[in-house]
Write a structure and sequence with these properties.
The protein is α/β, with parallel strands linked by helices. The chain has helices spanning about 15-30, 50-65, 80-95, 105-115, 140-150, 150-155, 165-180; strands at about 10, 30-35, 70-75, 100, 125-130, 190. Helix 1 runs parallel beside helix 2 and helix 1 (about 15-30) crosses helix 7 (about 165-180). The protein starts with 7 loop residues before the first strand and ends in a 6-residue tail after the last strand. This is SDR family mycofactocin-dependent oxidoreductase.
Length: about 200
């Protein structure tokens, strides 16, 4: 028995990194996954972005955990494509229980939603990691960039003696929040940042 047996989660940025970690972690606790990721390179991004093969690997890992998924290549900036992927997943799994937006968070918006949606028993929280050991940080661009701006590098340090947090540590916080363990937690900010903001 898992903490999320019979639940369905919708996750963006699901092809790799934190999004993949969240999808696999929630699947291991019993959730089926609706997921989207862009899976193509943007000219404005200097590091390699996710690929269709990354998305297929996430699907394989979810299925290995014994759960089902419907993963789609879609751009979160395209509301129509996002809605289509979400609706297809809801139709496939018969419902929806939680949303995890990997790589996105606006605190003021979260607090407003938490107030507005509380009467419907919908909880809204944000998780704030420091740099995580994912392809978004561990790539050929990021290291040289940090070396070129030493003041930024000096200030961008965790207080605990770890260079980067692991994606699974962020996933554990999300699992707490979306499971019944966090059933009365709403409108809150949770840092998984090894003391970065202390």
């Amino acid at each position: 028995m898992g903490k999320l047996d019979g639940k369905v989660a919708f996750i963006t940025g699901v092809a790799r990194g934190q999004g993949r970690s969240h999808a696999v972690g929630l699947a291991e606790e019993g959730a089926d996954i609706i997921g989207v990721d862009l899976c193509r390179q943007l000219d404005t991004v200097s590091y390699p972005m996710s690929t269709p093969e990354d998305l297929q690997e996430t699907a394989r890992l979810i299925e290995k955990a014994g759960r089902h998924c419907l993963l789609t290549e879609a751009d979160v900036r395209d509301q129509g494509a996002l809605r289509e992927a979400f609706d297809a997943g809801v139709a496939e799994f018969g419902g929806f229980d939680g949303y995890v937006a990997a790589k996105f968070g606006v605190v003021g918006l979260m607090e407003s939603y938490a107030i507005e949606l509380a009467e419907y028993s919908i909880r809204v929280n944000t998780v704030h990691p420091s740099g995580a050991a994912t392809p978004m940080v561990e790539n050929d661009f990021f290291g040289p960039y940090m070396a070129s701006v030493p003041k930024v590098g000096q200030n961008a340090r965790n207080k605990l003696p770890v260079r980067l947090v692991e994606a699974v540590d962020v996933t554990r916080m999300i699992l707490f929040l979306v499971s019944d363990d966090g059933r009365y937690v709403t409108g809150t900010r949770h840092r998984v940042d090894a003391g970065f903001c202390v």
